[in-house]
């Protein structure tokens, strides 16, 4: 069994490293190539790269685990995400692709904000870069936790060894090949993830005489704390809004929207959008199927599963031959590594462009920036590994906190900066700070778990609203000289 699994995983690792070497030869000559692939991504690569870097181990561990534990009611998270992603592609993608190039060819989100609001350039770059690095350290840690869980559960090895092995492989191709390596590996990884999420639910549904949908429904009916309904007895309106509010986070995720900046042309954004949404729809349905049908399989066969987030791993080991199990584990690694690599690269870009070049060496050459960026990738990865040291960490919990932080800090800011001519630099700074601080305070006070004696409110909701109000109020109360630039949606 182990031999076949390792053969599949070895082939996968070799392929990822080969892509990294190809990207090194193709697109690491200057900072624009290393950080944005020369703004020359084909639509399909941009689409699957955005999707794969978005979904991460959450798609194969966190979401199926939530559905396994509570039932179909948790699928509202996926619906909210799908709606949010679609609006993001329609509203943000074409405008960001056009404006980042028009405003002095900005290579990072902080740099774009500085160019868009020149009177607050330094403050915007410093604050936004700080938020990027802090929240991405937590977000990257969630991916490393998933890698540790895979290694300890599937191979009965050390959790911490799994964390460092995952980080090591990601660093190998990210440090060498930069943005193009990340996007090309994302494309391959996205294809693997989607295939796995098509194959597994179909097999699980009929495995061991499962009997299909009817038998699964009969097995699951009456389970305590589990429902096949879209609305459970303990679901409140606030709880439903909190699940759907995950979609608000899309507008402010730097590792996703940076793909919009790298699409080959504005005209090809629509093609990329259609590919991305088709991929996302299929993958989300598959993940829901893994959680629901996986619970039916476990109950039918009397299997004890201590951690619901490992249902994908259990099914891969139990139902498939070794080589296929290796492929499914590769799909899980793909989900993990595609996001970790994207987050490390965006963090690195902010550290190099918005700290090093801004404060340390304004005359740094492109070669120097590329090398500093590589060192920054390693540094952020090491910090994330330290955060991920607790094997009891939950992937979904870490993702939800980081997702809310980015969504609240950058979401309203990106929407308004791309569409509202009256917005000012002081308004942008106010939105960044209030959004991030609100999320942090909300989590620290435990209001995401229980609010005013009732159910918790997902921290992205107050953070997003406070940030939006702050931007509008401060912008209307201030004037901005030289910042009312023409806003176009190409």
From TrEMBL:
<feature type="transmembrane region" description="Helical">
    <location>
        <begin position="368"/>
        <end position="388"/>
    </location>
</feature>
<dbReference type="GO" id="GO:0015193">
    <property type="term" value="F:L-proline transmembrane transporter activity"/>
</dbReference>
<feature type="transmembrane region" description="Helical">
    <location>
        <begin position="274"/>
        <end position="298"/>
    </location>
</feature>
<feature type="transmembrane region" description="Helical">
    <location>
        <begin position="191"/>
        <end position="217"/>
    </location>
</feature>
<keyword id="KW-0812">Transmembrane</keyword>
<keyword id="KW-0472">Membrane</keyword>
<dbReference type="InterPro" id="IPR038377">
    <property type="entry name" value="Na/Glc_symporter_sf"/>
</dbReference>
<keyword id="KW-1003">Cell membrane</keyword>
<dbReference type="GO" id="GO:0031402">
    <property type="term" value="F:sodium ion binding"/>
</dbReference>
<feature type="transmembrane region" description="Helical">
    <location>
        <begin position="400"/>
        <end position="418"/>
    </location>
</feature>
<dbReference type="GO" id="GO:0005298">
    <property type="term" value="F:proline:sodium symporter activity"/>
</dbReference>
<feature type="transmembrane region" description="Helical">
    <location>
        <begin position="457"/>
        <end position="477"/>
    </location>
</feature>
<feature type="transmembrane region" description="Helical">
    <location>
        <begin position="425"/>
        <end position="445"/>
    </location>
</feature>
<feature type="transmembrane region" description="Helical">
    <location>
        <begin position="6"/>
        <end position="24"/>
    </location>
</feature>
<keyword id="KW-0739">Sodium transport</keyword>
<feature type="transmembrane region" description="Helical">
    <location>
        <begin position="237"/>
        <end position="262"/>
    </location>
</feature>
<keyword id="KW-0769">Symport</keyword>
<keyword id="KW-0029">Amino-acid transport</keyword>
<feature type="transmembrane region" description="Helical">
    <location>
        <begin position="67"/>
        <end position="92"/>
    </location>
</feature>
<keyword id="KW-1133">Transmembrane helix</keyword>
<keyword id="KW-0997">Cell inner membrane</keyword>
<dbReference type="InterPro" id="IPR018212">
    <property type="entry name" value="Na/solute_symporter_CS"/>
</dbReference>
<protein>
    <recommendedName>
        <fullName>Sodium/proline symporter</fullName>
    </recommendedName>
</protein>
<dbReference type="GO" id="GO:0005886">
    <property type="term" value="C:plasma membrane"/>
</dbReference>
<dbReference type="InterPro" id="IPR050277">
    <property type="entry name" value="Sodium:Solute_Symporter"/>
</dbReference>
<keyword id="KW-0915">Sodium</keyword>
<keyword id="KW-0813">Transport</keyword>
<dbReference type="Pfam" id="PF00474">
    <property type="entry name" value="SSF"/>
</dbReference>
<feature type="transmembrane region" description="Helical">
    <location>
        <begin position="318"/>
        <end position="347"/>
    </location>
</feature>
<comment type="similarity">
    <text>Belongs to the sodium:solute symporter (SSF) (TC 2.A.21) family.</text>
</comment>
<dbReference type="InterPro" id="IPR001734">
    <property type="entry name" value="Na/solute_symporter"/>
</dbReference>
<feature type="transmembrane region" description="Helical">
    <location>
        <begin position="161"/>
        <end position="184"/>
    </location>
</feature>
<comment type="function">
    <text>Catalyzes the sodium-dependent uptake of extracellular L-proline.</text>
</comment>
<keyword id="KW-0406">Ion transport</keyword>
<feature type="transmembrane region" description="Helical">
    <location>
        <begin position="122"/>
        <end position="141"/>
    </location>
</feature>
<dbReference type="InterPro" id="IPR011851">
    <property type="entry name" value="Na/Pro_symporter"/>
</dbReference>
<dbReference type="GO" id="GO:0015824">
    <property type="term" value="P:proline transport"/>
</dbReference>
């Amino acid at each position: 069994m182990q031999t076949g699994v390792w053969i599949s995983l070895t082939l996968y690792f070799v392929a990822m490293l080969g892509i990294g070497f190809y990207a090194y030869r193709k697109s690491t000559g200057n900072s624009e190539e290393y950080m944005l692939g020369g703004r020359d991504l084909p639509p399909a690569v941009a689409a699957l790269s955005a999707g794969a870097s978005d979904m991460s181990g959450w798609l194969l561990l966190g979401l199926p685990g939530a559905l396994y534990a509570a039932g179909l009611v948790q699928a509202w998270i996926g619906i909210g995400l799908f709606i949010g992603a679609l609006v993001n592609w329609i509203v943000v993608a074409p405008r960001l692709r056009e404006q980042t190039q028009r405003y002095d060819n900005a290579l990072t989100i902080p740099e774009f904000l500085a160019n868009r609001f020149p009177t607050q350039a330094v403050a915007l770059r410093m604050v936004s870069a700080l938020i990027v690095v802090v929240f991405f350290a937590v977000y990257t840690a969630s991916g490393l936790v998933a890698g540790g869980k895979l290694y300890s559960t599937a191979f009965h090895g050390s959790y911490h060894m799994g964390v460092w092995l995952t980080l090591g492989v990601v660093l190998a191709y990210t440090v060498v090949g930069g943005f193009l390596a990340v996007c090309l590996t994302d494309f391959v990884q996205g294809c693997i993830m989607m295939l796995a999420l098509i194959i597994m639910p179909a097999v699980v549904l009929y495995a061991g005489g499962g009997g299909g949908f009817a038998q699964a429904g009969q097995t699951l009916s009456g389970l305590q704390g589990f429902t096949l309904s879209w609305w459970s007895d303990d679901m409140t309106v606030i709880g439903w809004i909190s699940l759907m509010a995950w979609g608000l986070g899309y507008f402010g995720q730097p590792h996703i929207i940076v793909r919009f900046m790298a699409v080959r042309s504005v005209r090809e954004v629509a093609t990329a959008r259609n590919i991305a949404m088709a991929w996302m729809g299929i993958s989300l349905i598959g993940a829901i199927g893994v959680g629901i049908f996986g619970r039916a399989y476990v109950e039918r066969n009397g299997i004890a599963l201590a951690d619901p987030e490992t249902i994908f791993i259990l099914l891969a080991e139990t139902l498939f031959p070794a080589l296929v199990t290796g492929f499914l584990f590769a799909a899980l690694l793909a989900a993990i590594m595609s996001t970790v690599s994207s987050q490390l690269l965006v963090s690195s870009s902010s550290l190099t462009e918005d700290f090093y070049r801004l404060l340390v060496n304004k005359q740094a050459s492109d070669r120097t920036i590329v090398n500093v960026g590589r060192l920054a990738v390693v540094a952020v990865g090491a910090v994330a590994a330290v955060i991920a040291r607790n094997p009891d960490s939950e992937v979904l919990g870490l993702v939800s906190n980081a997702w809310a932080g980015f969504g609240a800090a950058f979401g309203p800011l990106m929407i308004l900066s791309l569409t509202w001519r009256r917005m000012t630099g002081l308004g942008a700074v106010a939105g960044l700070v209030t959004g991030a601080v609100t999320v942090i305070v909300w989590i620290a006070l435990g209001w995401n778990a229980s609010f005013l004696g009732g159910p918790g409110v997902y921290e992205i909701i107050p953070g997003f609203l406070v940030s939006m109000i702050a931007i509008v109020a401060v912008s209307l109360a201030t004037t901005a000289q030289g910042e009312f630039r023409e806003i176009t949606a190409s």
